[in-house]
Structure formats: structure tokens, C-alpha cells
Amino acid sequence: MDMFIDGAFVPALTGARQSVTNPATGDVIDTVPTGTAEDADRAIAAAERAFEAWKRTPVAERARLQKAAAKLMRAEAQAIGRTLTLELGRPLAAAITEIERSADLLDVYAEEGLRLTAEMPLTSVAGEKMLVTREPVGVVLAITPFNYPITLLTFKLGAALIAGCTMVAKPAEDTPLSTLMLADLFHRAGFPAGVFNVVTGRGTGIGKAMIEHPVPRKIAFTGGTAAGKAIAAAAVQTMKRLTLELGGQSPAIVCSDADLDTAAAAIARHGFANSGQFCYRVNRCYVERAVYEDFLARLKAHVDKLKVGDGFDASCAMGPLVNEKIYRNSERQSDDAREKGARILTGGQRLTGGLYDGGWFFPPTLIADADHSMLVMTEETFGPVLGIMPFEDRREALKLANQTRYGLAGFVFSENLATALTLAEGIEAGSVWVNNIHRSSHTMPFGGMKESGFGREKGRFGIEAYLEYKSIYLSYKEGL
């Protein structure tokens, strides 16, 4: 596939291309252009031209187009989902669900956009009025990771477009194909040329050029903390607005009065979804000593049922990790914990033989008796490895949960509502789940504290991040 710029698929100006591989087999499934600064410039120029008309398009018309795109996404969820499974390895049913839920978010953003208002303070001063209005920031750059390429783009795209911004998106090198399909879909839904553009290439090439370009007024980035810091440092040179959703090392606290079956099922489901490749997954668990061994047994029973295999096998709950770099981190954290005396309850070594020899397959791994000397309890894993540590005192558990530079999410299990709420309020994170783990709501703000980034996405909170406040002072002569 080619890049999508100004309403058409186009190659890189140099003609250079890079491969997209299937992580389950290692086979090349397609190629995409290796873009350069010149390609970034023509995409941004297209978005800048389109912005002049798009910002004046009535919000009702923007909402109509966005809903049309959402409807088309649902109609083509199977096709985009199959491509996503090929490039990411995630089980097909989950890939299709990603497309459908992303369409739902587009609808939410469309409805929230229709509810945006300006303000007029009631000063009662004769011949004077003050207006507080909001305008779209301008051209937006969206830089997204491989793990949920459509969802995490839609977080940004749906908010930016309904606010009146135009966008240039750069997907991850591992998963560009589904994003390119989405750009074509938006064009077919009726969005004007240049409103949504997608460029491909490497971060050190086209990504750097995009960030340093003087025209875009905002960068929305989801990815690693180190990369986010570098983007923020570069963005300040042109005072670009930023929304950064960065790394996570999310804790779960399981108290002795918790419903252990519910807690074990929720943590197994959430900790190993998408092979653990997302930043607000349960990464580490603190379990009260009185129920520690009981909880470990229940958790292991759930995890042992998770079958790992090819994404097109409907019986599989987990696919491969997306590439060798991501795989090596799970291996490194498991080896580190083993060497420091932890118990590996299940998993811990690469899966081999047959299908497994062709891709980066790592089993769901439970590391018991972990502590904060181990990488699994202190560093982001981004893989199917979960550290578990006992605690004696709930204040100690809260202190350990917050002993991290990250603050994206947290999880609490206690049937005592006072205990649960006290712990939930005490966890330093942007989102906290209590007594179960549901999908994050499209209407709730999502984002992190500390080095997990800043800014919020989803719902009206997400749209507001793409608007600038403007104060207008009006003087007039009274008359009848």
C-alpha cells in the first residue's frame, strides 16, 4: 500500500519502501513507502490547505460525516480486522472488536461536538459584551503505536476532526496497513481531500521532520515515555500543543476481603489481553498475605486456560508478540525474576515447536514472590508477564503501588467499600478500577499522571484538547 495524502494513495518521493511482516510467521505481507521530510511536508501542506475550509464547515456537517465514517467502519470491520490480525498477530475476534469500538467512539465524539458551546458573561455593562469562544488549534500530528493502531488513532482523529482540525497521522512501522485502510474509508465516507492524511516511514526520518515542522499546532502521541519526552522537547521549539499518553506500570491491590474469583478472572483477562501489549494492563499485583496462596492458585487456573497461537485460530486467546524487541523484554523480565529467587508459576520461556518457531510467541507468565528488586515490578513489560507480591499492611500496599514513575491506571479489589475507595483515591493514576476491570468508557477521560503523560482523551475532554480559547471584547452603541 502507499501513503494517503490529499485524498489519494501516493508513493514516497524517493520511491523507497519498507516491509510489513506477519509476527506469527515472519512472512512479508505487504510493503509501504519509507517517507522522508519531503513527504511530511507535502502531507502537512495538504492538511493546511484543507484546514481553511474545514474549520468553517458547520459542526453538524462534520458530525454527519463522522457518523458516516463510523457506519462504514462497522460494515468493513471484518476486512480491516483481518489486516490488523495479519500485521499485529492479535486474534481476529479481538481485532474486529477494535474496529467496531473505534466506530462507537467516533459516534460519541460526533455527539459531544454538537454539544460544544461558547460563553457570554452577563456583565450588564451598557454597550459592552464579552465572548469566550473556542477555535480549532489547526493542523494536528497523530503519532500512534502498534498495539491498538485503530483505537489509539481514533482517540485523536475523532476529537480533532469534530473540533475542526485537520490531521496527518503516522502509524507504527509494524502496523501501518490498517491505518491506511482507515484513511481511504474516511475519504469514501465523504471527508474532503487533505482533512485526514497518513504518512509512513521511520521515526528518525519522517517522524522527526513532522515534529519539527513549523505548520502543525498540536501533536497527539501515544507510545513510550522516553519517546514522549523527546517529542515534548522538540515540540517546545515551535510551542506546539501536546497530548501525551505514555508508559504504564499499573498495580492491582487485592485485599483479603476481596471476591477472589472475580479478582482472579479480571486480572487474568486484563493482564494478558493483546498478549499484554498495552500500557494500562495489570503489570504487578499486591495480594494480602492471608489470601496470597489461595489467590495464586485461582489466578493460575484462569491463566492456564489461555491458549496461545495464530490469530486466525478462533480457539486462541493470545497471539504472538509483534516483534523481537517487544518479545525480548518479556524474556528479560522473566529471567531477571527467576535469577533473583521468584517462583515462576507458569510460562517464563519462549514457546517452540511447530507454529511457534515462525514467530515471537511467549506464554502467559505468572511470577510469584516478586519484589521491587525485580524488573517486572518496576519497569513496563508490554508483554504477557505478571509479577505478584504479598503484603501484610494495606498502607504498605498503597505505598508500593505508588512507588513508580508511572501513573496511568490502578486496580483495587475489596468488598469493604470504605477500604476500596480509600485505596482507589490513594493510587496515583489517571484511572482506577474497583472490584472488576471493564473496558474504559468512551465518555470518560483517559490519560496518565506523573511520567505516564499529560492531557486527556475520549469524551468531551478529548475534544477540548483540540480547541483554543479566544476572548472577544465587543463595544457597540446602544440604540433602538
TrEMBL record:
Keyword annotations of the record: Oxidoreductase
EC number: 1.2.1.16, 1.2.1.20, 1.2.1.79
Keyword Oxidoreductase annotated: yes
Signal peptide positions (record): none
UniProt-listed InterPro entries: Ald_DH/histidinol_DH, Ald_DH_C, Ald_DH_N, Aldehyde_DH_dom, Aldehyde_DH_Superfamily
Domain of life: Bacteria
SUPFAM superfamilies associated with the record: ALDH-like
GO MF terms, alphabetically ordered: glutarate-semialdehyde dehydrogenase (NADP+) activity; succinate-semialdehyde dehydrogenase (NADP+) activity
Domain Aldehyde dehydrogenase: 16-472
Family of the protein in this entry: Belongs to the aldehyde dehydrogenase family.
Protein name: Succinate-semialdehyde dehydrogenase/glutarate-semialdehyde dehydrogenase
